[in-house]
Model the fold of this input.
Amino acid sequence: MLEFRFLNPLAFLLFIPAIYFMIRWLRDQSTNLPSVLRYSDTRLMQGLPQGLRVRLRRIPDILRFAAWLVLVIALARPQSGSGQEVVVSQGVDIIMVIDISRSMSSPDFNPLTRLDAAKVVIEEFVNGREFDRIGLIAFAQDAYQQAPPTLDYGVLLELLRGIQLAADLGLPADRTAIGEGIASGANMLRTSESPSKVMILLTDGANNSGLIDPLTAAEAARALGVRIYTIGMGNPAAAVAEDGTQRQFIEGELDEITLVSIARITNGRYYNAADLFDLQAIYEEINELETVWVERQITVRWQDVAWGWLNAALVLLILERILRHTIFQTIP
Done:
């Protein structure tokens, strides 16, 4: 159903001076034209028939008045609620799969833990996308779906910031179910019609939990057209605190062979992030790799239609100027 409104109806108050000038113009119509040339005696001209140009001499004034009315309507911001636009945008569905097992609390991404570093970099990645649907999964002993693929990045980032370690949630903290995380992400993308479906799996450990083998899950993801980028986190050296002492942290048993295999099966890539700068560079590279441009038709809730009124006012003013300085030119 067609909807219409004026965003700034107070602009119609400008009709008041327009009406005032219209009244003055009507008064002028009832009087004779003011003399612009002096003659010794004008009685000889009385009663002469008026030509067409004289009878139509008020057309420039009418055009100016009409332009004023049209401009007032344009200033009131007429808007339609049934407009549609075709935009060229990125069309990628992305699922972020994040490890929240105990080893992600290691502080070797100085001054951040691995999980905190992942959350910071993923937030930057999300802010760099515009039209992609992005979903979120956390996993430890099991996979926990946080958000389905969505364009509501505000809600997505709130959920991302709220992700905690499994231990802090009272869940088994030393379990890492990589296969469950991949399977859960593939299930989210199962009904996606996007030309590009991507999963970014981030972990610092090896699969030691869950009923689904990671390579089997990767095969299933490939069958659904999902490409998986795997990121192994962790620096084998202990982090050093500000006082020079060694920090105690939990070293995950990173299984790079499995992560490489998952990426190879799904035509993705494997990356290793030893520090925060590595992690940022990895997500920047993935951001550049995963760009698919598609046309999308979107419905605009309210679309300005003032341009037509502005164009009409411009035409009226141009026509008024031309007529006033040509056909209806006065002297002096």
Summary: Residues 134 and 149 are 4 Å apart (CA to CA).
